[in-house]
Design goal:
The complex is a heterodimer. Chain A is 31% helix and 30% strand. By secondary structure, chain A is of the alpha+beta class. By secondary structure, chain B is mostly helical. Helices cover 42% and strands 0% of the residues of chain B. Chain B has helices spanning 19-27, 35-39, 44-61. At the A-B interface, strand 3, strand 4 and helix 4 of A face helix 1 and helix 3 of B.
């Protein structure tokens, strides 16, 4: 039985929203990200992100496993409806915590299930702050093309 | 007139939020010789980082995402 929080769509229709038992408000969204491949073709894929608005200003935050369950539910639902898509995730590093986010994302991915594959930006790029991952269903018929474009795009911009 | 290079003040590393801003700055004066190269002259990771910062600011302020007209959201079903 899933332990996720109840979800709804934001009033403007652009994202998912949920509120935790502590009163923290989350928005989870997908935006468009443009990959390019070796033939200079563009491939637009969704990029997943989520944001929290805390109910209090307290810096002490307890761990809530239901938040993870809810985020994973959203991602699974997306793949259920879009089985051939890939989803990109970028860990922001403006607060020097990209690596921590990346580690958390890796742990959460393990619970997504064996049907999914994850590809990460190469370690040499992680070393300079690029923590980006790409998740795709193992059954996607677009998998090879999108994976190729993912790594091509990273290499293209890291070697400019 | 000769301008002294010492008058040019480069931003310090600490003034950039991440490496991609450095890459984008270095690319600013690069010549993109093909139409595709010109079209692709915006670093998508840098652009994504900017979008995420704007989204974060809007969410934390309690304002709707609909105000972010230039960001393309994939509508949830």
């Amino acid at each position: 039985m899933s332990n996720h929080y109840d979800l709804s769509i934001t009033p403007d229709g652009k994202a998912y929203q949920f509120t935790t038992s502590k009163g923290d408000y989350y928005i989870a969204y997908f935006t468009e990200f443009t990959l390019q491949n070796s033939r200079n073709e563009e491939i637009v894929i969704p990029c997943f992100g989520f944001e929290k608005r805390s109910s209090t200003t307290s810096k002490r935050e307890g761990y809530d496993a239901r938040v993870k369950a809810t985020i994973l539910f959203i991602v699974r639902e997306f793949f259920h409806r879009n089985p051939n898509e890939g989803v990109l995730y970028l860990c922001m590093n403006s607060d020097e915590k990209a690596r921590n986010r990346h580690i958390t994302f890796n742990k959460w991915f393990l619970e997504l299930g064996a049907d999914y594959e994850k590809y990460d930006s190469p370690p040499s790029y992680q070393a300079v702050g690029l923590y980006s991952s790409f998740v795709v269903s193992g059954m996607s018929d677009q998998k090879s093309a999108i994976i190729e474009a993912f790594f091509y795009t990273i290499d293209y911009w890291m070697n400019q | 007139m000769i301008y002294s290079t010492y008058n040019i003040q480069m931003p310090s590393i600490g003034e950039f939020e991440n490496l991609f801003e450095i890459c984008n700055c270095m690319n600013a004066n690069k010549k993109h010789t093909t139409p595709k190269a010109k079209k692709n002259s915006v670093n998508p990771f840098l652009k994504l980082g900017e979008e995420k910062r704007k989204i974060s600011a809007v969410i934390k302020s309690g304002k709707p995402l609909s105000g972010l007209n230039k960001i393309k959201f994939v509508k949830p079903l």
